Amino acid sequence: MSVQVVAAKMAEVELKDVPSKELATVSPVTPKAEEQAVIKNEPNTAVTSSVSPTSESTPKGDPCPLTASPNPVKMPQASAMKRTDPQQNGGESFVNRDGTVAEAPRMKKIQFADQKQEFNKRPTKIGRRSLSRSISQSSTDSYSSAASYTDSSDDETSPRDKQQKNSKGSGDFCIKNIKQADFGRREIEIAEQEMPALMALRKRAQGEKPLAGAKVVGCTHITAQTAVLMETLAALGAQCRWAACNIYSTQNEVAAALAEGGFSVFAWKGESEDDFWWCIDRCVNVEGWQPNMILDDGGDLTHWIYKKYPNMFKKIKGIVEESVTGVHRLYQLSKAGKLCVPAMNVNDSVTKQKFDNLYCCRESILDGLKRTTDVMFGGKQVVVCGYGEVGKGCCAALKAMGSIVYVTEIDPICALQACMDGFRLVKLNEVIRQVDIVITCTGNKNVVVREYLDRMKNGCIVCNMGHSNTEIDVASLRTPELTWERVRSQVDHVIWPDGKRIVLLAEGRLLNLSCSTVPTFVLSITATTQALALIELYNAPEGRYKQDVYLLPKKMDEYVASLHLPTFDAHLTELTDEQAKYLGLNKNGPFKPNYYR
């Protein structure tokens, strides 16, 4: 039986053809004694009940078990007239077609003692804060990176203040919670299934141990995919110490799994700027251990060693750099004659450019925006700053979802590509007032400055897909006249004095790895490229590489691609001897010149 009790203001019940003497016997609701219902007669309140024809009894556990009268109450026709008797304190009666007058039932208010008691227990100030936090926290868990268990922890103690040890008794790490190791191990195992090339490389080369004696210090995003790379490097003979290149992208459970596995990891999600540099220093500055290889993403690790421990470069054989920002820094050092060791530019390798930057961002831009804002893309006006490989991926995804996409670009070649791909090329100040979403992916600084932020429309979403957090001038928003309001994990409302607000994601840091995940398969391509670059630099004979920045040899690029083809059951066509001679190529490659991108 379904019974709905409405204790609302003046809900009127009109009855027809019901004798007044029967009204006294009709009981719309009969509360049981055990409910301890307190019934008060009030003229301006009413009770309405509806009885399901298919129900015979109240379900056990119904919080409000009521019984309805077996005699159904007949509702009046629309022509019945209502009359109010002023001498009965607002009581009402109804005049039927035949002229008879029927009294309306007394209005009753039902209030249950247990409910009254519960609702009178108003939370204290602390209780309200706790309740608000728990609701907010539960709502953000599904938006955290890789369904991370990071945000479900109530422990606000800084990992730097904790003393943790893994099951083997080692404490050479600093992470959020070592107890999350089992969860992290499951995520790593899932990632392994989507990283066929790394697993193949691990299987083929672990007998030879090409990285035996290598001491690799790394600064990258610490995710399940990075964990597969680190464990592959260890299987190939390397010792590893690792820090995070982004304060928001670390998956705490993965870091725990790595620490449990014996890796020296110093990272957790939500580091402060001071924590960030402290973690890098802990990786580098350790007694009895000095790195001889660097794997960097963004150039921060290289910069720190160059600034604090320049003598370490005497034993370092090479640097492998993955990002646009880091490569730019390396070229600056090389141009100034300050680059002390050979460096491999992985970012500009074909497999990184054409796969990670393009295909990865094409999928992860939508994932990041959806998880943080639940935005509908169809019909939205979006401006994408930069039409490199990252920008191309973002634009393609947004266009496919029905967005109206504008592009800003400084390079006439990339600008022409944008035009021929069907996008309108504009200056940012021409569209900043009308767009719904602003996405930066240039690798530059001060692309979106305070002037543009002031002119944005109310509710505009602002985010960054470049590696560095310098593209959006977030520092200019930390002023007394603006209010910051945390909405979800990695989502802030910045509110102007007139009430206008913008939605800032990840405080201007990398959106996809801060707010969502990236496709594991495409990261397998990049990780395999990094592993091969480390092997190449570490084993290269002295003199092959000078103190300069090099591109990954095309032969290695093609090898990385070939390792991923079996996943698609793909079959390469082989050149005949005559065809190879005609093209001037080796039948086994490389098939592109070194300058090809």
From TrEMBL:
Please report a single Pfam family linked to this protein: AdoHcyase_NAD
Q: Which GO terms describe its cellular component?
A: cytosol
Locate the compositionally biased regions of type Basic residues: 122-131
Give the residue ranges for region: Disordered.
19-173
EC class, as a word, reads: hydrolase
Q: Where is the composition biased (Low complexity)?
A: 45-58, 132-151
| Record-level Gene Ontology MF annotations | adenosylhomocysteinase activity
The cofactor required is: NAD(+)
Where does the S-adenosyl-L-homocysteine hydrolase NAD binding domain lie? Answer: 357-518
The UniProt entry's GO biological process terms, in alphabetical order, are:
one-carbon metabolic process; S-adenosylmethionine cycle
Indicate the family of this protein.
Belongs to the adenosylhomocysteinase family.
From the Swiss-Prot or TrEMBL record, give the protein name.
Adenosylhomocysteinase
Q: From which organism does this entry originate? A: Chanos chanos
Provide the organism lineage as a comma list.
Answer: Eukaryota, Metazoa, Chordata, Craniata, Vertebrata
The encoding gene is: ahcyl2b
